[in-house]
Amino acid sequence: MNIALRSLIVIAVWALSVTTVLAQPKPAARTEVATFAGGCFWCMEPPYDVLPGVISTTSGYIGGQKKNPTYEEVSAGTTGHTEAVQVVYDPSKISYPRLLEVFWRNIDPTTPNAQFCDHGSQYRSGIFFHNDEQRRLAQASRAEIDRTKSFKAPIVTEITPASTFYPAEDYHQDYYKKNPLRYKFYRANCGRDARLEQLWGKRGG
Asked: Staple partner for 109: which of 135, 155, 160, 192, CB 3.0–4.6 Å?
């Protein structure tokens, strides 16, 4: 084999190997799940959707007994579920403590079985942990809030193991995007922002 032909073969093999390496799919980012209940789930999606590292938010129901509950059943308060939002996130870009920080500052932790204008166990606030590390961090964050809070009322937000999460009906997903005027009207009339400012001060995330 002459030198020229050998050189062509070497170059071809090298090009093939480079092409193969470049064609390899990148490994998918590791994701984790966090679940929070803060009253109306329409209002809990927006604070998380804007965070870098959050991949998706899903409104749904958790903490009850009935399988595949409907919105009508949950809103009637007969299934034991609470409205919640499930957050899928990239832990290399955002931490669970940051998600907890956003959670606390978007709820009223002083009202049992209620959030703002919505009343009933289906609107109770809660952190539903998916592993021991989330439980530890959630309990630590609650203790820190209790230590530093400016309000006198006790914190009643639950910290419990995550059970089966049932996504809500499609029309509830991204409601604030699909129906912005109705969403803003509901939020304002429910007194959510006024109460949050009273509890936490001016909104800062």
From this structure: 155
DSSP state of 121: G
Catalytic residues: 40
Cα end-to-end distance, the chain, whole Å: 70
Non-local (6+) Cβ contacts of 113 within 8 A are 119, 120, 121, 123, 124
Amino acid letter for position 144: E
To 10 degrees, what angle do helices 192-200 and 180-189 make? 60
The yes-or-no verdict on residue 21 having pLDDT over 80 is no
Torsion, Cα of 145, 147, 151, 153 (10° steps): 90
- pTM > 0.90: no
**CA proximity to 69, closest of 80, 58, 59:** 80
Nearest to 176 by CA among 35, 30, 1, 48: 48
Other C-beta atoms closer than 10 Å to the C-beta of 85 total: 28
